[in-house]
Amino acid sequence: MRIVKLISIVVLTLTTTTAFTQKKTADYLSMKWKDVATNMSLEWYGSDEAKLVAENILLSQKEIGGWEKNKAYHKKNSESERLHYINGKSEIGATFDNNATIIELRFLAKIYSHIKDKRYKQAFETGLNYIFVAQYENGGWPQFFPVRKGNVAYSGHITYNDNAMVNIMNFLKEIILDNKKYASLQINSKTKAKAKEAFDKGIQCILNTQIIYGGKLTVWCAQHDSITLAPAKARSYELPSFSGAESVGIVLLLMDIDNPSKEIITSVNGAIQWFENNRIEGIKIETEIRKDGKTNRIVIEDKNAPTLWGRFYDLETSTIYFCSRDGIKRKSLAEISDNRRNGYSWYTNAPEMALSKYPKWLAKIKQNRVIILSDIEADPDDTQSFIRLFLYANQIDIKGLIATTSCWYTSSVNPKSIEKIIEAYGKIQPNLLEHESGFPSPETLSLLVKEGLPKYGMKGVGEGMDSEGSDWIIKVLEEEDDLPLWVSVWGGVNTLAQSLYKIKKTKSKKEAKRLISKLRVYTISDQDDSGIWIRNNFPDLFYIVSPGDDYGSATWTGINTYVKGIDNTTISNSWITQNIQQNHGALGAQYPDVAWGVEGDTPAFLSLIPNGLNEPEHPEWGGWGGRYELYKPDFSKTKEGGSIVTIAPETRDIWTNTSDNYTPYISKEYGRTIKKDTVSFNGDKVTLWRWRDDFQNDFAARIDWCLNTYEDANHPPIPILTHAENITVNSGEDFSLDAFNTTDPDGDGLSFLWFNYPEASTYQKLIKINGAENVHVAYFTAPEVNKEETAHFILKVTDKGEPRLSRYKRVIVTIKPK
Questions:
Q1: Contacts by 256-264 with C-beta closer than 8 Å and gap 24+?
Q2: Got the DSSP string for 679-711?
Q3: 454, 464, 467, 463: which is closest to 496 by C-alpha?
């Protein structure tokens, strides 16, 4: 109470000595300088009050261009303060600490946009140049520049502490990207180029200072030596360490970079894994009142407490430590001095920010690359599948759209039909961007449309059979990108066969092997005779297929199979009309009625959609596109379909049909909200249709985005585990899985469902849950095993929006024998 009174007195004194009215000063004189500098109404920055503040900014700017920290620049200066700024202009004191200099530059940009006083622009340019001058050649920035000496010389280290360097780089990024906040300053291209160079050097410094521990990239120290780049000491209690707090700002900065390099991706992944591995569970920090009336921070046990991280971790043991001003590391908060225990933040929950953003970032940057081979016009389902595909064009890296033939369409290709769909997509693409970033322009997609030869199967493979499509596949394969290239085959596969023929003929064995090793193929059965030729002649090629032409025995038909005993509404014609075709904009209007089977080609790319369940490199783990295992199928059990395709025995292992045993959960009106159904299902199609309602609802939600505002549409929840996605337990040990921090972007209510997926595991007996399966935390007991086994557990989180959307987390538990 006493402190409050003192503050009130100070404010009153200031307001009576200024030229401002009491009402106007109340708007901002009681605020913090950083809020006045950047968060006032736009009109305020054109006011007389803002002009008076600007005079303070001009007065206090150092000759070198920066400002001091922790100054209330919005308040009237005393005579001694005014003299301090005038006499100290040439002295060391400018800094980036506590967001100094950056705040003042943002203020100058705001006021200049309203009041074109050339002094403001000149001060801004001088301050921006200070940033350039202060940067080390290695890309880092010190806390203070020019660098101070003596017992504060640590401020010359490359400084991540309190986000000093991150604040600089975020500001530079705004300059580079022509943020409209700086439009009035008319920053020239030369200065922007200089900002880009400084930003890029800063990123390289960040990558170079990331600490490697045990051969793995981890996080950063709060400060690093400006010469050696090694973790460095600052104040006596701020020792070289892994920083659980300051590293967060760095990771968020790296995540915000468009088209990140492989080095940046690797850096982020390393830091995120460190955050995952260094969680502190089961404690919380509270403040007690001691007998002497003073407050004291204590650590208490609480198994339900949110995750924490230490501010500092020892570089040798990777364990959290605490420190008084004597510089001696101690193991607990209780062991250090009152001053440091209560006057410094030793725990943080900041890494949760990075972890919560990681799934979306990962989906954005680790996009599966895909080339589509489509016999469009052979069946309306190709058009249906293209419409769905383009709604995920920001999550799947589409590298080619090639019109091909098939057994149903032997002598024509129709790239114009793909162009027609892209034209419709172009009409709604701007609205899609209101919901998620990254949707490519229609012009970009049009450049990817190519033609295969209008020949059937092997008649289009061999010398002189190159096509725009086959050459395009090779071109994409030769790009400097080590990520796999998926070829999603909706018709015949002879365009790919020709690419492989040419690679084998024109490349060295080593180069051919390298290129082919990047290929991943998922074909919708065999729709020409080149599929079996490919599998026979390229035995190492990753290939998913239900071989032959008997669609009734193919896994992919699970997308449109009517299943007795379940609700099939989401593949009904009435559902399609209401949720996809009608009143959903230009793209929905292009969705044709079902003729043979709805979206028979969609399974060839469904598993490429990032949803927390799909792991396309592991078909045996199961996902939206079905589950497959690697073996050589028994040809005697292969049925012949009604096409012209000639079937033949497999000569090698392929990824092909396998079965799931599935008992659906159904809703329950009273008590626990779900229960297991009384019927179970088994078969290869089950591996796909078990997810059908989820991916159909997802499709319906995304096509809503074509017209709806963000507020009027639904968006998927974000499951967040409180532990790693891979954990190890012992036989017979109890363990829990928890998604306490799960969120929803629309604020919707959430439903949880945990279940064991034995078919995806090496331990293939069902591990039942101990208690309820529909809460954020689930309890299990590891079975007794004689050898190391893995067990897959799936978390499905479904929101209560319309339509209901689901996302997943897959936790792989390694069970060790006793």
A1: 256/173, 257/203, 260/365, 262/482, 263/207, 264/203, 264/207
A2: --EEETTHHHHTTHHHHHHHHHHHHHTTTS-ST
A3: 467
CB 215 within 8 A of CB 137: no
Number of alpha carbons in the 13 Å side-chain half-sphere of residue 370? 31
In this prediction, residue 437 carries a pLDDT of 73
The per-residue DSSP string of 242-298 comes to EETTHHHHHHHHHHTSSS--HHHHHHHHHHHHHHHHT-B-SEEEEEEE-TTS-EEEE
For 300, the token pair is 């208490």
**pLDDT-derived band at 3, boundaries 50, 70, 90:** very low
Span 422-472, pLDDT tens digits: 999 999 999 998 888 778 899 999 999 999 999 999 999 999 999 999 999
Q: For residue 718, how far is the Cα from the chain centroid?
A: 11
558 vs 568: CA distance, rounded Å? 11
Instruction: Give the strand pairing for 212-213 and 396-403.
Output: unpaired
777 phi/psi in degrees, rounded to 5: -120, 135
Please state, in angstroms and as integers, the Cα–Cα distance from residue 287 to each residue in 290, 295, 330, 532, following that order. Answer: 9, 6, 20, 71
**All residues at 6 or more sequence positions from 215 whose CB lies less than 8 Å from its CB, including other chains:** none
| Residue 203 CA, distance from chain mean position | 19
- Phi/psi at 413 (5° precision): -130, 150
Closest CA to 10 of 34, 33, 29: 29
Question: Can you read off the two tokens belonging to residue 91?
Answer: 């002295």
Query: What is the CA angle 612-617-619, rounded to 5?
Result: 85
Side chain identity at residue 483, one-letter code: L
Q: What are the structure tokens assigned to 588, written together?
A: 């929905």
**In degrees rounded to 5, what are phi and psi of residue 396?**
-120, 130
CA distance 375 to 382: 7
Q: Which two tokens stand for residue 450?
A: 């190519």
- Residue 650 to residues 407, 645, 781: CA-CA distances in angstroms? 20, 15, 42
The C-alpha atoms of residue 608 and residue 618 are separated, in whole angstroms, by 11
557 within 8 A of 536, measured Cβ to Cβ: no
